[in-house]
Amino acid sequence: MSDLHVLCKIGETDYLFSAADVLQMESYSGATRVPGAATQVAGLVQIRGRVVPVLDLRVIFGFPKIEPTLNSRVVVLQQEGRTVGLLVDSAREVLKIPAADFQPPPPVVVQQTEGMVKAVAQRNNRLLMLIDASKVIGEEQPHGE
Amino acid sequence: MSNGFDSAHFLAGFIAEAEDHLAATNANLLSIEAAAAKGQPTPRQVRELFRSLHTIKGLAAMVGIEPIVEVAHAMEAVLREADRAAGQLPRGAVELLLKGTRAIEQRVQALSKRKAVSPAPAALVSALAALRQSNAQASGAAASTSLPPELWSRLGAAEREQLVQGISAGRRAWLLRFVPTPARAAAGFNITAIRERLGTVAEVVKVVPQSVAATDDAPGGLAFALVILTDAADALVAEAGAVAPEELTAISLEETPAALEEGGPDDDAVDDPRHRGTVRVEVARLDDALEKLTALVVTQFRLGRATAALRAQGTDVRALAQVLAENGRQLRDLRASIMRARMVSVSELLERVPLVVRGLSQATGKSAHLEVAAGKAELDKAVAERIFPAIIHLVRNAVDHALEPPAERAAAGKPEVGAITVTCFERGGNQLELTIRDDGRGVDAVGVARRAGAPLPTSDEALLDLLTRPGLSTKTEVTTTSGRGVGMDVVKRIAVDELGGELAMRTTPGRGTAFTLRIPLSITIVDAFSFLCGGETFVVPVATVEEIQEVDLDRTVRGPDRRRTPRGESDRRRGTRGTDMIQRRGEAVPVLRLDEIFGLASPDTSHRKAIVVRRNGEPYAFAVDRMLGQQEVVVRPLEDRLVRVPGISGTTDLGDGRPTLVLDLIALGSKLMAESVTGAGA
Amino acid sequence: MIIACLRPQTGWVFTQAASGLEALERLSLKRFDVVVLDLNMPDIGGYEVIEFIRGQDKLRELPILVVTTRGDESSRTRALAAGATRFMTKPFAPEALLGEVRALVADGRPEAPP
């Protein structure tokens, strides 16, 4: 298992994805809305010819929605044969964090994120939350609805 | 063109047989040429050629197509002499014979499109005659002209033939422009007047309106391009066209290898019927069969409705329902069979490519040999038509850019003849993998990076990204043979965006390059209307649309509110506040506002277009902002469950690189009506 | 036969164009409020004319009233899909045509600058 993780931000909160799950990262310039899809579905984008559904991570974690910026990124995940993108405020770094540095998440985090954070790590006094990719894209209803 | 049932019948048969013989002729000619390069004699091929042309001549005579008889006769005479000389063909014969084959092919094509067949190209016929005394050759009929591609593409086949024919026969062909201005209009010079004036000194082949940037000289933003043929003096023509003689642009013939502008592969040709137990089928007949099948499906549907009605009355319909289900399965199987019949063999699709390479070799002075190894791979005709120009472009690139001139190759220790291979095999998952490989100099990463103004790419993938940037191609690949409308960016757009496939590249400096296309074996293409709704673009398949009408939302009739939501009030968001209705041929049709249904912004006018669909015999009218047009689109189904919603059958790419939703208005209509009856929420 | 109308403050002015090409020419040189277009035309197809007009930025909103002898649904659908605004079939009384034309112009569309 690689120790590499992609670091993303929503507001001031840091989230990690295991690099093994990440297919690619793309900038975001809007998506084609899909009327009738769940609220966390931002829409469809075309990435290198592939049509990919994009979920708004802000909506999934109960943050207020914002207008995308030049820093916004779509983190394209591959899980169990599905290719789904996650929209985040920014995704600039790839960190090397060995498995030993991860600890189970505190109960309050587990509750708030409904099990979507599977571990946490510390770096420079910041708490980084490792996201369970399959839970996040498997969710049918966003957090809080 | 046809005078009645009998001649049309014969004509179809003639076209089919002629095409078979022409394909064999091309193959033989190429084989003769390759053998001649090695100094090997080819008496068998010469005899087969002689027989083919003799047959073509006879067939053409039977259906009375004089021009083909003439060309075939001239070719046959050359071949008879060669046959008597133990297969020895005079110098330059193969070249001329290929041109002759091309001339016959063009006329057979014109016949199949029921257009006029132009007279035999006099120059070519005399050249062939001269060949029999082993004289120097003259130029023959070419496949295209120096007209810019955007004009050439606006000419129909008959007009192109007319132009090419006229030039071959020695007439002068001119392109001139007329730009309407208020001053000219005031002086009585409008497009009608100019046409009339030109008509007195020339034959006007075509007038093409063109958008141009609005400037002082062209205040209307419109210019007309006129293509004419004439024998009159330049000064007279210029005067008639109200232009200066310098403004006349000569149109000349251009040697283009094979019929690439005619686009793509032959009809569903299968092998020589004498050997394979196969049948030639025109694609149009298959499409017709598919249409009739659709009608059967609709009938099946109506039977289902009638059965449901019977059941509602208490009749026991179980046996009937079983038969219906069986019928439905059989219809699906039938559809699959017809779709399979549309498959084109990749080998046949690529039959012409060696011809292309041959022409390019001559034009560029490089030596190239092409091998096609496609085995039994097959493609749906719709995919084949779309991918063919991309393949041709990659092959052209290989000869034009990748392969080094013979001297350079020799110095590098490579064989003088450059090797280009096209291999193809079927991958799992409904995909075809096609690789175009050359043993040339590889892609110049430094040069590409510089032209793109980007840092040096660190991988083949990154280099390919740069190569396929729009605009880059036109700068780097404008040579006389490439640069004709398909650049690397278009190759990517076709293979990846349009067809949903992949494009990859591997290159080694000094050794060679390989481009790999992965494309779906079959795709869903539908004829679709595109429209604007709530400021966003959508498409809907033409087959599902009964009609498009104008509708004024201020003048609809409010029908009774049949729905009761749990809260007992109208749900405005779903746009069915009491059902708006319009009168249409004595029917009351509910009007559903698509912008409200989708939660989009409404335009500020009440005048909309309504797309009328019918489900279970009930019509629905969906009000949208504006119709945009009609085009064939490739529909890619939405696979992920997150985005599978009723009313949306997939996405397509209208050319802007963004997914555009393909709507299933019938399903949407029934979902909304179901909600309205039960009062259910989303 | 194609008719294009220009309405200065004083009333209607009808301009005739003998062919699709001439219609495009006139449309490019002057501002018109409505185009009445016959689908049966000699030199350039009716649908092609509609598409060309819709392809011009400044003519995108120009009301196009299509008139034809064919009453079948497919030509109506095709014309509207190509971008026509209204569709009428002959024969009709001249008042009906005028009524449609007036309605199209009085539609409340914002006046485009000439």
How would you describe the overall organization of this protein?
By secondary structure, chain A is mostly beta strands. The longest helix of chain A is centred in the C-terminal third of the chain and has 6 residues. Chain B folds into 5 domains: 127 residues, HPT domain (Four Helix Bundle (Hemerythrin (Met), subunit A)); 111 residues, Alpha-Beta Plaits, CATH 3.30.70; 69 residues, Orthogonal Bundle (Helix Hairpins); 177 residues, Heat Shock Protein 90; 155 residues, OB fold (Dihydrolipoamide Acetyltransferase, E2P), CATH 2.40.50.180. Chain B starts with a helix and ends with a helix. Chain B has 682 residues and is an alpha+beta fold. In chain B, helix 12 runs antiparallel to helix 13. Chain C has a 5-stranded mixed sheet with strand order 2-1-3-4-5, sandwiched between helices. By secondary structure, chain C is α/β, with parallel strands linked by helices. Chain C has a single domain, classed as Response regulator (Rossmann fold, 3-Layer(aba) Sandwich), CATH 3.40.50.2300. At the A-B interface, strand 4, strand 5 and strand 7 of A face helix 21, strand 23 and strand 24 of B.
